[in-house]
Amino acid sequence: MDLLQKLIGDIHLKTTGKWLLLSVMIGIASGLGAIVFQFLGQAIQHYTLVRMAGFHAGEAAGEHSFFTADNAALSPGILLIVMAAGGLISGWLVFTYAPEAEGHGTDAAIDAFHNKRGEIRLRTPIIKTIASAVTLGTGGSAGREGPIAQIGAGFGSFLATRLRLSARDRRVMMAAGMGAGVGAIFRAPLAGALFAGEILYREADLEADVIVPSAVSSSIAFSVYSLSMPIGSRFLPLFGRDVQFSVGSFFELIPYSVLSLVLVAAGILYIKTFYGIHAAFKKLPIPVKLRPMVGAVLAGLTGLTLHHYLVDPDALAVLGSGYGTLQKTFGKAVTLDVSLLLAVALCKILTTSFTISSGGSGGVFGPSMVIGGCLGAAVGIGFHEHWPNLVPQPQAFAIVGMAGFFAGCARAPFSTILMVTEMTGDYRLLLPTMWVSTLCFLLNPLTLYRKQVGSRLDSPAHRGDFLVDVLEGIRVEDVYQKNRKMIMVHEGTSLDDIVHMLARTSQRYFPVVDDQQRMIGIFSADDVRSYLYDDTIWQVANAGDVMIHRVVTVTPEDDLNSALTSFTALNVDELPVVDPQQGGKLVGMLRRKESIAAYNRRLMEHKRAARD
To answer: What is the pTM of this model?
Structure first.
């Protein structure tokens, strides 16, 4: 590690070379982490859900499985036991070794970026990997983006800490790891790079510094992760190449607009349910380590109840990833009816909330894809039955629904558009996807990620940046009091007169002037205090003896940032303001408190403008 640190320090092209090397390292680690996470999750699923419970969780068409499927009948009782055991193990791991790894993980990475200088404990991604693999492998309704984002972010943070880089560099490396992990496991490198910069903020803002490092690390992570798959499927989109739809008429944007309203309503329901159940579990009078087990059992009961009443194996999409049922909505002929799709979407909200809000470990992106896709397919089928000429391809609504639902819930429209596009391998639905995702982003006031901040202006990570930017826009002339009465002392004034003058005024700083009223020095009440012990020199000494000759001044045209720098360097509360056009004639005094007040006013204006 010391050798690597020296190598980075010796690189001539510091900006380009350093970030290229670091981003490649993060990409390799994230890609390997994605392979380990995927294999571990599939292994647990194969030996518990499949062999013991007979539950076959369908996967996306382009998903590579490390294990061959076994044929066994579903055993509801065993399924509940497996899910309960998974919740118990996951809860014990998380709350014993890394409590910050609970939940969907992405929020923890966002919080580390804004509030913890990008610092993530090394054990966090390790525990997150194991706990999330257990949750997903035993049928928990969760996604993979949260765990893999925290895995990549954790390595980036660890590497920056070991290399003793700055807090800013650690934040960038942490975000690059987050994007690399997402880009690898969803086989969407471009979306992963943008996801890392966009997911940090609630509003339409972007962390531009992380885009290029994330693009490099995401590309490398995707390449490394692809090596674990057969040659023929390495560059296959997650949902295969058969997902090919297009827009036939601009009038199709009308039903897509209706879809946006449905997705926004469902998104609000999802977020309120998610955090409502989270609050309920916080009040549950049982040990915190047992809560994920209770959540897993409730999720299992929800899925089995739906399966019992609908007598349809696709109803079990509310457990596990649900990608198998989602894949069916992209088929050339949708075989699922509207009632099943709506039931899966609504119950998926419940099972995801039970799994993750109870403290289970997993992401929210995957379940959001299933919820949005099923709702989109249901709306598309409904329009197709009544207006087949207007909506000839209801399957396209499933793809657009996937993007729109998560874009609104996560406040990340552009990375979601790219991610869904890369996952399906179809760019011909870019227009309706952009339209629906933008509407959902604008109309949904809530967010799944509560650690997001409004914009960079609200982030502690950028507090220093905006301090300088705001002050540079204000001049001294805009702040200092021009009509303020000020006592100026002639250089020949005796110290006796000065001492008696101090008793009659609250003024602290006194400019000293010559016969032409030009300022030649300044003294403060503190400067006079050292002479008070000996009144014998009061008649001998004068202002010229007390004053400081080398005076730091500002002009009305100076920006307030320069003035504040002088305040800090000299540790004074007032600075003389002089007119450079009139030989340095004194025109007033600038107070530190006036400068701070001006900064606070301008900062509030910027915040109000950002909100509006």
So the answer is: 0.76
